[in-house]
Amino acid sequence: MSHSRAVSHKVRRRNFCLGGASALAAPFISRRSLARSGGELVFVSWGGSYHNAVRKGLVEPFMAETGIHVTMVDTPDLAKVKAQILSGNVEWDIFDSPGPLAATGSREGYWEALDTTHFPLSELSVQPTHDLAPFCLTAGGIAYDPREFPDGRHPRTFAEYFDTKRFPGLRTLRNRVSETLEVALLADGVAPDQLYPLDVERGFRMLDTIKPSIIKWVEATTQTITMLEAGEADFSYSYASRVQAAQASGGVSIDFSFAQTLNFLEYLSILKGAPHRDEAMQFVAFALRADRQAATMDMLVNRPVNEKAMGMLSERVQRWMPDINPGRNALVNDAWWAQNYSGLERRFKEWTLS
Amino acid sequence: MTTPAMTRDRTGALCTIGPAAVFMVGIVGIPLLYIFYVSFNGLHFSFYAYVTLLSSRLFFQSLWSTFETSILATVLSVLLGYPVAIHLARQSPRRRALMMILVLMPFWTSILVKSYAFTIILGRRGLINSALSYLVGHKVALPLLFNKFAVVIGMANYLVPFVIFPVLASLLAIDPALGRAATLMGAHPLRVFRQITLPLSLPGVIAGASSTFIISLGFFVVPALLGGRHDVMLANLVDFYTRETLDWSAAAAIGMCLLAIIGLCGVMAATLRKVRRA
Amino acid sequence: MNLDSMDRPARRTRYFTTGLACVVYGFLLVPSIIVMLISFGLIAGPGQGGGTNPTLRLYAEFLSSPAWMQSVWHSVFIAFSATILSLGIGIPATYGLERFAFPGKNLIRGMLMTPLAVPTIIISLGIYFYFSTLGLINSFAGLVLAHTVYVTPYVIMTLTAGIRKIDPRLEFAAQLMGAGRQRVFWCVMLPQIRPSIIASGLFALLMSFDEVVIAWFISGVQTETLPVRMYSSIQWEISPLIAVASTLLSAVSFLACLVASRVRPVEGGDSF
Fold this sequence. Notes:
heterotrimer; A: D-Maltodextrin-Binding Protein, domain 2; two-stranded parallel sheet; 15 helices; 16% strand; C: mainly alpha; 75% helix; 0% strand
């Protein structure tokens, strides 16, 4: 561990020289870090209902058990991570982010190596990498309005989602290459366990066929639901947990097809040079514990990575858990995307414009 | 413009403009220099960010789309804002203060909830399509959403106040005696408008239009939520490079290109003015 | 002038512009009204489903949340400070630009306008770095300074339009009568551009209150502004509390303007 400390120190120093005004700033910085060292663990996560679930399921029990105070900050922004690390002014400790962000941060070397000695490794369905701890699993798939398409007359698999003759109607896809390319390849019949490395050409050819039926390439996740709700789209590529939340709110007629899903992970990571590194490790280990996973995921309705937690979920939530056994469903490979994302995303954006 | 009151008083200029200049250099200038430096990849000097940008179709396409959208949104905002400014200028101060609140309303409403409101208005089953269906007698579903139309409407809803304020300021500064005199002399109100009101309010229009245009250049939430696949703005690209791929050189280079283009527009406008005056 | 004393074409054009203005008022207001209806539970909000029972539940939730209320006060403080500062530097600067001749004036004018010309996300990145070396991140001073430079170009632009429309001979005359530069500025210039000052101040206030990108970068947990809080609560889901925040803001600004228009003595047609 002392090694990574030294590295982060070097990163910090070098970038101060880059900053140029280091001499001027030195007194401020040292005073600030002094003030910070006695402070609270900072956990960066999402807002809204996610915030509430994580606070009740994870943060409050952690504070009660360890006496360490945790401050929650909403919205993990990788640009802020980069800025904090470059300026040597790291204020955040734990970063809760979906695969693409976590993997990009990993590629850039923004995370501390994890100390897995206290992790319940044998209970986890996905093993942590050296700097990323999988936290939960989300399922992407086909959402539809059961009032408009009763008795299974909606597309159930991605192949059917791309079959505009049998299932005419307007659809949505995400406005980003990750997920979208996987969905296209699964639709074209690629076996889920042989998805990676992605056959990019084949994926784009498949996307060409559905382009005219896509009413909206969705930028904001909430729009995957509201598009259906407002009747703008007939079918929408959305997420099981979001569909569940909309259904639970009472007024939205919406359902989700579990016949085929694209699963992806949400990760916890610790910022390089985090002011409370050790407490952060403790927090991540705590977050992976079966009881905490069950309590949190019962509210988030995402699949816990701790398999023991699966049995502890309420029956209501069990129905919304995607299957992770290799069959029809695929798991997004974040390490592959970390290497290929920026080039392909540019190509994808050019493709949508043409 | 050398007016009688325009003097060559260097100390006066320094005292008045100095504080603002210090603020700008101190708080914007230094960060911008830093961004300029980042666009050349910092200490490892290279042109790669500029080379990749200038050789990418995506950059030019979004540049074009950005300009197209911004110009349309500016024109619409001026067309919508001007009559409101005229209407406000005619009110008594007290009523004007009240009506001003109406104008400011869009400002207070978060753009994200508002774009949901626009879905309710413009959607396939939205207010406008329902009203039209009722009038025509059969079902109408005009595609009003997820295209440039929706983007421009959504942007104008936010931008109109930026036109109203400066135009109103210059309208209020017009001596009402001018219009009264012209009317007494028998001028048709349209002629009063064309020959007095419009030319005298032009500085306000220009101020409003240019700020509207430049703000439009930086829009990305509205195009992302209300636009179709062709409505990619440069700011989306900046955001993409800043937050997703963390390629800040590319983001900074886009910013520098935008700055250069705007600077060029400014210089061109200034020369044009000079040539016309000569 | 009242309507009766006008001839027909004048009345007709007046009705025409009034009609046109009303259409625009409608255009500006309808989306906000829909948001208000959402906040009272009269229309289903995004992802909220059918709920069409009028309720004040969301208001109770908003007003009893210390985090939301705190961010409101932060925003109020920052917006007022930034407005006062930007008027303090913007009024003299505009005056200087319009009334003094000096070399490199266009360059300086351009320089004062730079925050307008650069996408805010780029400025924010630069400011983040700069402020973090100065220890100004997560401080009110930093936010006020950044917002001051952000709104100053709008202040200068609005004031310029106002100053260009007043007759410079008035100042010249005052000077001939022996008034000093300062006296001319305070007693001749300022009263004439009062509407522009109020307009630009109001504008600056709103711009700062509404600004999210810069604040997102340089505010922290202790200095979170309302737009930042709104922004982060919509990243995961569109919280219906946003509709409440928007409605409350409209109501408060409505009351503020109402009070302002009652308190100020009503005079000629030059005031707001």
